[in-house]
Amino acid sequence: MSFKRYIPVESISELTINRLSVYLRCLQQLEQEGTTTVSSQELADRFHLNSAQIRKDLAYFGEFGIRGVGYNVTQLREHLVNILGLHEERRVLVVGAGNLGTALSHFSGFNTGGFRIVAILDSDPHKVGKRVPGGLVVESVSDLPRIVKDRKVHIGVITVPASSAQKVYDDLVNGGVQAVLNFAPAQLKGHPEAKLKNVDLKINLELLSFFLTHAARMAAIG
Amino acid sequence: MSFKRYIPVESISELTINRLSVYLRCLQQLEQEGTTTVSSQELADRFHLNSAQIRKDLAYFGEFGIRGVGYNVTQLREHLVNILGLHEERRVLVVGAGNLGTALSHFSGFNTGGFRIVAILDSDPHKVGKRVPGGLVVESVSDLPRIVKDRKVHIGVITVPASSAQKVYDDLVNGGVQAVLNFAPAQLKGHPEAKLKNVDLKINLELLSFFLTHAARMAAIG
DNA sequence: CCGTGTGAAGCTGTTCACAGCT
DNA sequence: AGCTGTGAACAGCTTCACACGG
What we know:
The structure is a homodimer of 222-residue chains.
Chain A: H1 14-32, E1 37-38, H2 40-47, H3 51-59, E2 65-66, E3 70-72, H4 73-84, E4 90-95, H5 99-105, E5 115-122, E6 139-140, H6 144-150, E7 155-158, H7 162-174, E8 179-182, E9 195-198, H8 201-214
Parallel strand pairs in A: 4-5, 4-7, 5-6, 7-8, 8-9
Antiparallel strand pairs in A: 1-3, 2-3
Helix pairs in contact in A: 1-4, 2-3
Chain A binds a DNA duplex (22 and 22 nucleotides) through helix 3 and strand 2.
């Protein structure tokens, strides 16, 4: 119920936060199935997780369980929603109306659960003004500062080529955006005032290629 | 040239492999700029990396540098291509012709550098037979085993809803696919004979939401 | 008893710092 | 001299195992 505020949130690992999202998914599923109470062991068995890790991850934020019983599914889900900040709407700006940016702008995962794409931008005059699937009209990247301000953008998503990613990132941060998701295969110089998360889809294929090349036998726990 | 050590590949971390991909990108850029030699320190400064880590990562696979000088850019790039297995073509099958699957099937990152999408499947009869941007025609998921066998699929990409992800994964592995990239927000039960890599795009937004929430709270507290 | 919450142990990943080679 | 390659120190993450409270 009450957050243990004496632990600085900076000290909590990204790995833990990512697992909280996973636990949230699991609880949503259990809730839909009508389960009201679950133990860490049941969660672990059902979803191939580790029970001690579940308890440790949750313990960073409070005492949500009942000893001898387990966790109330609905209450724990609500706690996780609050911890992850998913109770408020997060407005997302996509920069780069190529293949990936266009897909993400109407990807259900980016338009549900508290997130909403408020604009998609591109530097190509031929793309500006065109409507993308999902209903948004591509706007000019030169309007980035105005759009960030007027639409109170929380999160910037970079899907431009690597060569222009740093400039877009700098513009986003200068415009006041505090969180950026970068899909460009570029090693960006990070600003201390904005959280930067890099996601490189191709790296995952290259990882699999490595395993195909070297592995006769490889564990499949991902 | 030869892999000097007989360290079992299982002992090398995914984190190291992912960084090898990053180093490869950096070297490709340096090569295009005409740089012939680079030290680990120069690489680190230029691309915001750690020089000791670069040397340690490379050392798992051999001695590629010259003491007192650094690394030959072209040679090191070639070594990384070989280590990651990018010298052979990797045939990729996308299962799920929704938003994300369609985008990935013609995403440049999935059709260059040794990777090639050979088919895209869906269970929806209305989608089967339709041509997606990029030129592929959607085929039926019921043909999965035949397609995997005939087109010698190396890597399966799952972009179906979470509820059907486990079945698709099982079918891929039973068909002989040894590497699977899963975009569905599901906790799959892994098969030991196939490498499974989970990528959940929404988790990244939720991570950023967590940081935004924390940043706001810190500002409010002072 | 039972399952949570948690110190402690064990393990993994990163960084340091320097011997050794060019 | 200069930079790599690497043992050793350090830091961070996971798992264990049990005291504690319901």
